[in-house]
Structures are given as structure tokens and as C-alpha cells.
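JOB MANIFEST
job_type = single_chain_structure
chain_count = 1
residues = 354
[input]
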Amino acid sequence: MGNGNITLTINGEEVTAQKGQTILEAARGNGIFIPTLCYHQKISKTGACRICVVKINDRMIKTSCTEPVTEGMKVETEDEEIVEIRKGILELLLAEGDHNCLYCDANGDCELQSLCYRYGIEPSGSDFPKNTREIDYDSSYGLKRNENRCILCGRCVKACAEIQVKNVWSFAGRGSHAHLTSDISEKIGDSSCVACGTCVQMCPTGALSFQQVLGKGQAWELTKSSSICIYCGVGCKIDFYTNREGQLVKALGCDDGPNNGHLCVKGRFGFDFVQSDKRLKKPLIRKNGNLEEASWDEALDLVVSKFSGYKEKNGPDSIMSFSSAKCTNEENYLLQKFMRAVIGTNNVDHCARL
């Protein structure tokens, strides 16, 4: 076919893919499910977990996340042999780690658990040797690390290196002694981690998790709403998660925004002021030297009277506005329009100029 398109068959269905795509990309582009653990579309391909294996041309078993499509290729994504391979991989992953689904730091949002449920795999209770490692609960304000639930998929390592470009995470040891380690110290809080949380958002199990959400609600109990980060002018889009009590407990980067799902430490964890007891929830007006609560109508009427008085007494150029990069473009536009059209002055400035 022209335009770089090729034709192949997946599960008996003829589909079209782009030249250079992998089997996994072609399958997902055509709405066909193939399970993955180490793969993520935002990082380079690994092919480590082998859970995405498929059968090519009725004979070859290949990892679909690394195998490129070719013209006329025939792919089977799930037959009896492939299912048995996947079951064996999942059984080994459960045997090597401490995957207690009754209490998991992933809070019901675990890709490993979902695949075990799909293929009917349960912990075997075998005597397979486990390398129990210390759980880092509290060295970091935002992150918790439980290597006993790590499946060595490498997502966090690549996310830190390729997205955040910090190279905090790496692997140490060989064979059954292989484990995740950080650059300076085994403790997250003592490493060079900047707490962006990208590794947690990419982790498919409960090996890395957010401190704030623990004990405040399972994944299926949380309600998602999207907003714009208030901390700078980039305009990162954030998915906020609220529990049944109305508490804001988690922030994830939204893929639809200019941040492409990534967040810095401020956007990731800087929402605790929402639940602060010190937060002002009503306008305050100073009366007889004391700040007293007032209605919004009363407060806004006071602002109007003050602005009108200054303008009448000293002219419109006695008033100026200073806008903020924390505001959206629309909010900044409204402020300068208000100053020019309502107040009648061009005294408009913005923090980004400084």
C-alpha cells in the first residue's frame, strides 16, 4: 500500500498499520487488546516482562512491543499456548514478590492485579525464595517505596531518565538478587529525587506509591476532575482525585495538556492548602481595625466603591494592575480588558516581564 501503510492480519482480521510500528502499536491502533507491564508509550521499548508475547505466522513467539510489523504478517494475540505462557509469567511474578492484594499500596489501581484477575492467577503459597527488602515509608514527603512489590519492569528507571532526566533510579544486583536502587542513598528522601512523582504514575504495581492517598480511599472510590495547575505559566493540566469525604487526595498529570501527563513537585503535591484550616473561605473586611467575615456581594461592592473613588479623585491613571502567570490566558485577558475598558488606563503589568 502507499503512503507508508502496510497490511497485516491480527486474529484473522485484516488491519492497516504504519511502516515502522510495532505489533503492539498496530494492535492498539485497531482496538485490539494485548496485555503489557514493562511497556509504556512515553518511554523507550524494553521487551523485558514478556507478557505481551504473540504468535507470528503460526510458529514464532515474539514480544509484540518490540517486533516491527511487516507486509502480509499474520499475528495471533491469544491462543492456548500464549495464555499458558502469560500464566507462567504471572505466577513467577507473584512468587518472587509480596503481592498482597488485600492491602496494596496501589489502592486498587494495579496492572499486575488486573492481569492476574484476567487470567485467573492466585498466589501459590510456594516456598520460592524471596529477597525481602526494607520498605521506605517516610523518608520522602510525597513518595513511598516498597521493593517487595517491584517486578523489575524498568518503567520508573526509564521515566526518570527519559522524561524527568534525573537518572535517580537504576537496577543493582544480578539474577534473583536484582533490585531497584536510587543514586545516592537507598532512602528516597536522601537521594537526588526531586519528587516529581513521574515514577509513581508510571509504576504498574504498588512498588512506588503516593504518601497522601494512603488510607484515604481506594482507586474505585475516588472521583476525578480536571483543572489547570496554579503554580506557573506553563498551564499544565492536572487530574485531581477526591475521596468520598470530599478530600483532595491525589494529583496525576493529564495527557491532554501541554505537559503530556508530566508534573513537577508543585503540581504533584502542592494542593494540601485546599484542606488547610487556615484557608480563607469567605471575604474579610476590616471594620474598626478588625477583619470580619462578609458576603461576596458586600466585598465586591466595597471594591467597586474604592476603585470608583480613586478614579474620580485622582484619575484613572492612579490605578494599576499586576497580573499573574498563575492565571490562565483568559483570566489575564479579562484583567487587562477591565483596566483599559472599565478603569480607563493602560497601567497593566505582568509578573513574567520581571
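[summary]
Helices lie at 23-29, 80-96, 111-119, 155-162, 198-202, 265-269, 296-314, 329-343.
The radius of gyration is 27 Å.
exit_status = 0
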